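Ops channel
N.P.: pipeline sanity check, posting one input/output pair.
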């Protein structure tokens, strides 16, 4: 069986594909598997959304929810595990013990496309950079799709077969499930401790996971990375990679890659230069300068015209749930940064605040260390509103720093408390630094509930 599995690209009559998880990536993989003539079975330990059930029924794909039929799953030739399912889930442990290949959607789908793939990962800025890169390539006239950890599933788009280029936002969980996946252009934006609960609380395990994006690259591929990031530099020194390195930096001048000279972004690839004034960027802030550098380096490599790159960088206004200005009420600005699911993302958010801030924080802690936020909280935050089932760690970290600290257990409650605390000229910032799964479906649901609650004030 193993020889069949390792070569699952070849058409072998009715190989059995089992998909664990009936969400976006699971259903997309099931559709692709069916199209490629696998015998497909979808199993979800929880509930499958009605809309996804309809898709599975339409494609005549067998599915189950509310538990796993072990015999049906263990008879698989190959299993696609959705990114939310941990490696230590009992069914996954049994599959691996039996020698069944368990992969991610990204690995499975990449077998069935010859398209150029740009893979973008990092602890923060993935969605913004992936969306900006997609816009640059699309406006540059390329036939391109956006997928991975964002939007429509990569596998479903591969099944569709219409695209010659993909920009994929990739999480560490998706990269954990790859075997031979190799993007032509890999981007590593930054590293900061995140999801440590899935990595035995070891930062080095998480870092190794992120670097999997480059593990199958060759000398004909490119690796774009933040040259200001200590952990990235350390890893590259100890673990040389095969691809061509293109660094970006806001602190040093670089002969090859992207840097800042005289308030202009300068991108140099093989003596070919592109310049862009920082002041005209649609998204401001140092982290967005880096996101712009990474995205335009990709666009440059894929031969997008310089004028198109400049115009796109000037007009790009960011993505939903990332420092998104919602409304100004009584001269108080409400900002939705629900996508800040780790401490580093919240650091950027607080750092960008220029007015006294009422900060809504909390959710599922992923092994967070809040100490790096203390100076910013001291300087900028006038009140903290905890929003989570368990707020103990946040209270412990900031109880003596903020003049006001209030516990809440619903978004409506949190926004009402923020409204009472905020005065003219202040900002109310939702930047949770935590995952959302205690009170919300996901960070999008959390962000939308915030916007809804603000509009109802």
């Amino acid at each position: 069986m193993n020889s069949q599995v390792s070569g699952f690209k070849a058409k072998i009559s009715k190989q059995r594909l089992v998909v664990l998880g009936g969400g976006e990536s699971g259903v997309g993989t099931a559709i692709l598997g069916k199209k490629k003539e696998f015998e497909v079975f979808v199993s979800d330990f929880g509930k499958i959304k009605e809309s996804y059930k309809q898709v599975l029924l339409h494609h005549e794909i067998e599915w189950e929810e509310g538990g796993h039929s072990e015999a049906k799953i263990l008879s698989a030739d190959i299993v696609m595990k959705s990114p939310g399912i941990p490696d230590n889930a009992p069914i996954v442990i049994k599959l691996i013990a039996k020698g069944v290949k368990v992969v991610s959607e990204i690995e499975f789908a990449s077998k069935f496309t010859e398209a150029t793939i740009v893979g973008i990962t990092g602890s923060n800025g993935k969605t913004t950079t992936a969306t900006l890169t997609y816009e640059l390539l699309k406006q540059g006239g390329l036939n391109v799709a956006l997928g991975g950890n964002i939007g429509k599933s990569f596998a479903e788009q591969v099944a569709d077969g219409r695209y010659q280029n993909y920009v994929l936002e990739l999480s560490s969980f998706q990269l954990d499930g790859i075997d031979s996946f190799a993007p032509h252009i890999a981007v590593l934006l930054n590293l900061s401790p995140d999801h440590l609960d899935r990595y035995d609380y070891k930062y080095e395990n998480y870092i190794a996971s992120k670097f999997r994006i480059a593990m199958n690259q060759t000398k004909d591929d490119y690796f774009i990375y933040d040259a200001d990031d200590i952990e990235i530099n350390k890893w590259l020194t100890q673990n040389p990679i095969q691809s061509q390195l293109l660094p970006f930096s806001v602190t040093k001048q670089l002969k090859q890659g992207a840097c800042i000279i005289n308030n202009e972004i300068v991108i140099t690839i093989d003596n070919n230069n592109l310049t862009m004034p920082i002041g005209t960027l649609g998204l401001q802030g140092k982290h967005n300068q880096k996101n712009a550098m990474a995205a335009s380096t990709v666009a440059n490599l894929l031969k997008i015209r310089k004028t198109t790159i400049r115009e796109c960088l000037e007009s790009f206004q960011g993505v939903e749930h990332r420092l998104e200005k919602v409304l100004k009420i009584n001269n108080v600005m409400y900002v939705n940064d629900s996508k800040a699911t780790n401490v580093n993302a919240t650091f950027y958010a607080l750092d960008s605040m220029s007015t006294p801030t009422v900060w809504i924080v909390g959710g599922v802690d992923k092994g967070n260390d809040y100490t790096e936020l203390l100076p910013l909280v001291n300087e900028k935050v006038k009140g903290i509103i905890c929003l989570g089932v368990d707020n103990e760690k946040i209270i412990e970290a900031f109880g003596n720093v903020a003049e006001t600290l209030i516990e809440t257990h619903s978004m409506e409650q949190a926004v009402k408390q923020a409204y009472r605390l905020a005065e003219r000229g202040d900002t109310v910032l939702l930047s949770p630094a935590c995952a959302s799964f205690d009170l919300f479906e996901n960070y999008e649901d959390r962000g939308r509930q915030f916007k809804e609650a603000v509009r109802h004030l």
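N.P.: looks fine end to end. The radius of gyration is 23 Å.
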